[in-house]
Amino acid sequence: MLLIACPNCGPRAQAEFTFERPLASIVTPTETLPDLIHKLFTRENPRGPSWELWRHTYGCAGWLKVHRDTHNHQISAALPVDMETPS
Amino acid sequence: MSGPMRLADGGLIDRSRAVSFVFDGQTYQGYAGDSLASALLANGVVLFGRSFKYHRPRGVMAAGIEEPSALVQAGSGGRYEPNSRATDVFIYDGLQSQSQNRWPSLSFDLGGLNSLISPFIPAGFYYKTFFGGPKLWLLYEHLIRQMAGLGMPPTKADADIYEHRAAFCDVLVVGSGPAGLAAALSASAAGSRVILAEQDERLGGSLLTDPATIDGQASDQWIAKAREALIAAGGRILTRTTAAGYYDHDLVNLVQRLTEPGQTPGADGLAQRLWRVRAGKVILATGAFERPRLFEGNDLPGVMLSGAVRTYLRRYGVRAGSRAVITTDNDDAYRTALALAEAGASIAAILDSRPADGVHSALVQKAMAQLPVHFGAKLIAAKGSAKGLKGASALIDGKVTALDCDLIAVSGGFSPVVHLHMQAGGTLAWDELSGSFSPDQTRQNQTTVGAAAGANGLSATLLSGWSKASTKAKAKAAPTCASDDDVALNIIADWEPAPQASLKKAFVDYQNDVTAADLDLAWREGYRSVEHLKRYTTLGMATDQGKTSNLVGLARLAKSEGRPVPSVGLTTFRPPYTPVTLGVLAAEATGAHLDPRRRPVLYQTHAAEQPIWQPVGYWHRPRAYPMGTENLHQAAHRESLTVRTKVGVTDVSTLGKFDVSGPDAATFLQLICATTVGKLAVGRGRYTIMLREDGMVMDDGTVWRTEENRFLLTSSTGGADRMAAHLSYVRKVIAPQLKVAVANVQEHWAAVAVAGPLAKDVVAALLPQMAVPRHMSLDVGELAGVPTLTLAASYSGERAFEIYAPSDQIAPVWAAIAKAAREIGGCLYGLEALEILRIEKGHIVVGGEIDGRASPHDLGLSKMLRPAGGYIGHTALQRPAFAQPGRLQMVGFEAVDGSAIPEGSMVLTAPKTLPVGHVTAAGLNVIKGGSIALGFLRDGFSRTGESLIAWSPTRNQTAKVKVTTPVFYDVAGVQYRD
């Protein structure tokens, strides 16, 4: 079980969180149809570091951007959702 | 003395406390501190069970949790546990234990005939033999299940209590042998909070078998002082506690046994506890397993691992034989030979596979001086039966030599216990000389110490534990041992059996009856990958997961391949390390505690009416309020009829409710809702649907404008939590620029629905201060002294109102409305009537028609969609698939043959054809009678009037149906209007 450092609550067990989706798959209301189809149905499945959207559902209920390595589960960052994603 | 094999003194057993226990119906005596295996061995028992496939007689091979053969079932009824290792059960008064996989009895076992036909059941025989179609396979399977297998599964519910506990520490040490204790002391001295877990009931590990002098004191004293020091420093010591799994980010599951298998727990009823430990650092001091060797009959009772022989002798005071043969590739077995000799056994031979010209350690030289040691020698075969050994043959100086013995002590070297290291994502390094894998790279914050890390000798073991546990540890402060106790292993791994040995009886995996010949056969048949080999031969499967067999099997495969061992690969190490009972994983989450039970605020009020309850998500709501002898259907029909003709009252408090406010509230709701909501006048409401971003309908509800910048949004009961998450997602992630606040007020407001032709009269009488609101309008008032909000909305199809009040004040409101309704012939109605009424009106519901696969078009709701778009799901609705023919579209079905349309049935054009649709909800025509249903039909919108068949194979019911539009009552929609 992962340990995720919520920016509001500190390090908490994964059981308190919900995985939402990779950041790259967020669909905006103005998305074109081909982009929407790509984001929903033909997503990348990266092996390695990936930015993801999580929610601290059973904690502060805040949304987080989590930088997780899908290969070894290393988490290098967990930021509030409204913070700029480092490139 | 408890049995003929028990020594007069010695051992870590309490000879003042006799313990009486039962094995296979016979009562035996042992001592407190005995394992079941040691107590039975002391009593001269050599036969512990029958093997998995060939029903060969098996004794006990090991002294620890790696035991593959001596499996027993313990206890009975709700405290029955199969497949316990006799070496891992500590006896207690009243222990009831039985051997497994034998019929009719252990000593006379008919399955032993399998042994005679073993040439015909080689590796992969399941795949080769049982052809002939499914019916024959059922017969074979029945026979196989009778003849093969391990313990019987329990038949009664578990009678015990289990619990979970979370714990945190700076350093978790797994294993309390010399390395583990040194590590715990070192970490503790450096100021770390320490948890020490030991699977045995005693601390000490190998020191329990080989007492030593450490820091100038006897090891039992050193252990006792270490315990005191750790506790004094605030550490936690957990004995009888197994680290079962190592998970991500240094989470380790510890399973603590508070009772032995089959034992009745203490007053608190607690049998086991699962600790979920999040550690800053994990130190694995898990020791090493001794390996068996390949020779004919290496599985017979009386053949034991060398270290186990010594453990029984030293720890339990049990001498497992009187005339022993030792076969070894290392120095450690010499300690066993000398210990046996010291205890009065004779040593027939020490067969050392290492060459004679090596440098002999002091220990070997000591043995050579008094015992028959043969170098370059190998065991060919053990001879014996279920009654024990009757000698052996060996290859000594190139000649086949017969040996007289009743005990064979085997040491094929040592394999570090790397299971947890591997579960944590580590890698291994191979040492060819000792033939062992030890930990190399680690991925998590863990380190392995002692024998588990390949440390050789007690001094190196202590130093490794001490210095790796803390960066502050100084090597010169490490515990040290007397030089006599520092025995190096000097392993020269030799996997090759004597050429004279028949490999058909040379077992690699004892628990699964896999022989060296089976592995060779599998290789000849083309199984090159170790993962394939495992599945084909069952090598390394079952409850011991190959703890003693894996490396022997790998080495055999490597030899066939002509490749080094590491290049043939390893199978995956998965949790749990040893079998874990499901009870401790579930702990409190069983029965009524599996899920929370949410009770609506009026729960007690309903309970007084003795309704039939129905779970809806976590909620428990009244399904119907039967009167007299009514059953569910009679009650629900009466209730629906009352709503259609007079008035009914129902509790709708559990609906999802969201207060949406702020200058951008309307804009926000335009994103959420696929209908036009932004132009609502204050005081008005609308039915609405919410779509997922893929265009499918997610939920439905109503939206009400209570103020210019404030809305009340409702959703389904079951979808309320999902809707709350969706609203939060849109507000925080999709449209954070909007100035809007969303409050989940599901449980702040309770609500009572009043429906029926007389509903207006009830509202007018109870809320005289306001005008009765028009359909889809709202107004505030006061009822029974409670402020209320009245929404005029209809779900049943009748004129209806939902009267909202603060949850903690709803009781008088409910009471007043129920009383007023009953006085004019009305009644309470539950979910079943609600369902009947909505089916008749063709209203969709989450989980029924809103099934995640239906678009608004499929549900016939296209006209409701906001033409300008701009709502979530709008773009996806442009996908071409939505416009293609063949989609399942929502229709109604009407039974035409007088039978009831079966719930959940499939819809066919003719018998034995593929289904063209399905029924989502079946109900009845409340006033006219007759069976009706809602459902989906391929291209259903254009098939009205068609005759079809609704067929439920599971209920074995059929109804002839006619396709209709999905509205069966008041098609013109006049009943619910003003």
Provide the descriptors you would attach to this structure in a database record.
heterodimer; A: 87 residues; mainly beta; Folate-binding fold; four-stranded antiparallel sheet; 6 strands; globular; B: 978 residues; alpha+beta; FAD/NAD(P)-binding domain; Gyrase A, domain 2; Alpha-Beta Plaits; seven-stranded mixed sheet; six-stranded mixed sheet; 49 strands; 28% strand
On the 0 to 100 scale, the average pLDDT of chain B is 94
Number of strands of chain B: 49
The CATH topology annotation of the domain at 161-288 and 416-481 in chain B reads as: FAD/NAD(P)-binding domain
Which structural category fits the helices and strands of chain A?
A: mainly beta
CATH superfamily of chain A: Folate-binding superfamily
The two chains with the largest interface, and their residue counts, are: A-B, 27 and 28 residues
> What is the count of DSSP helices of chain A, taking H or I runs of 4+ residues?
1
Strand content of chain B: 25-35%
**Which architecture of chain A does the CATH hierarchy give at level 2?**
2-Layer Sandwich
Question: In terms of quaternary structure, what is this?
Answer: heterodimer
Could you say what the CATH architecture of the domain at 161-288 and 416-481 in chain B is?
A: 3-Layer(bba) Sandwich
Structural class of chain B: alpha+beta
Strand content of chain A: 35-45%
Q: Kindly state the mean pLDDT of chain A as a whole number?
A: 95
Spatial separation of the terminal alpha carbons of chain A = 27 Å
Walk me through this protein's architecture.
The complex is a heterodimer of chains A (87) and B (978). With 87 residues, chain A is mostly beta strands. Chain A has a single domain (3-80), classed as Folate-binding fold (2-Layer Sandwich), CATH 3.30.2270.10. Helices cover 10% and strands 38% of the residues of chain A. In chain A, the strands form two sheets. Chain A has a four-stranded antiparallel β-sheet, with no helix packed on it. In chain A, strands 1-2 form a two-stranded antiparallel sheet. The radius of gyration of chain A is 13 Å and the shape is globular. Chain B has 978 residues and is of the alpha+beta class. The interface between A and B is medium-sized, with 27 and 28 residues.
